[in-house]
Amino acid sequence: MKNLQDTVTLYNGVKMPGFGLGVFKVEEGKELVEAVKNAIKHGYRSIDTAAIYGNEEGVGVGVKEALEENNLRREDLFITSKVWNDGLSYEETISAYEESLKKLGLDYLDLYLIHWPGKDQYKESWRALETLYKEGKVKAIGVSNFEVHHLEALLQQAEMKPMINQVEYHPRLTQSEVKAFCEENEIRFEAWSPLMQGELLQNEELTRIAKHHGKSVAQIILRWDVQNGVITIPKSTKEHRIIENANIFDFQLTKEEMKQISSLNENRRVGPNPNEFNF
């Protein structure tokens, strides 16, 4: 990626922005609508939400207003949502997709994901995603929070492999095994919580690298994502942070710096462990 609007190509040929806005824990209301509008105004083209976030309607309003205000077309944007694990049967997944579309006020989604693997329920849900894809109702399909064994089990019975695996990924959780498996199987790797919900922003090693480049710690982490070939969707509602997060294309981390950042890995999560699914 050389700029904010550069894309990566999924194995089915669909082009997906390599950088976007996440809206996890952003409640419905003016703040959400303005965050989406500000992101699009400042060049973001990818917005990531989910049914469980309870904010698809606000995202839809922000998208609609941003399209009008910036003279953009729907196809200029890439919108992602996810099916929640309280309804992963074939029929429930189809219904959940239609409900997300209705709330977002859209005719189609660019990417639809199974949010969590759960306990083998995802196989029926994946069959529904394949149907939605074949019918042209979604441009790309994928999964989220899948470990290698989940992916292996899915690939044994799937007609199509996922185009994306979106997982928790940051310098304390580099997910090297999952990332390698995805790369070997042409499944694009995407990071949620790339800034570890702010836990890494005071880290001494990252602060030193940031000072060297005249950048913020957040920018260093997001640049590390990009140079690792990872799609990333940092969350922010503040306009100046939305701008700052994307201002990472005017410098490069050295190989040594990349190694130093990766060496911070402790296999430590801020979110749930997909192998200990209890919700």
TrEMBL record:
Record PROSITE patterns: ALDOKETO_REDUCTASE_1 (PS00798), ALDOKETO_REDUCTASE_2 (PS00062), ALDOKETO_REDUCTASE_3 (PS00063)
Enumerate the transmembrane spans: none
The record, for InterPro entries, names:
AKR, Aldo/ket_reductase_CS, NAD(P)_OxRdtase_dom_sf, NADP_OxRdtase_dom
Annotated Pfam families:
Aldo_ket_red
* Organism of derivation: Priestia endophytica DSM 13796
Q: Tell me the lineage of the source organism.
A: Bacteria, Bacillati, Bacillota, Bacilli, Bacillales
Outline the extent of the NADP-dependent oxidoreductase domain: 30-266
Please give the name of this protein.
Answer: Aldo/keto reductase
In terms of Gene3D superfamilies, this protein maps to:
NADP-dependent oxidoreductase domain (3.20.20.100)
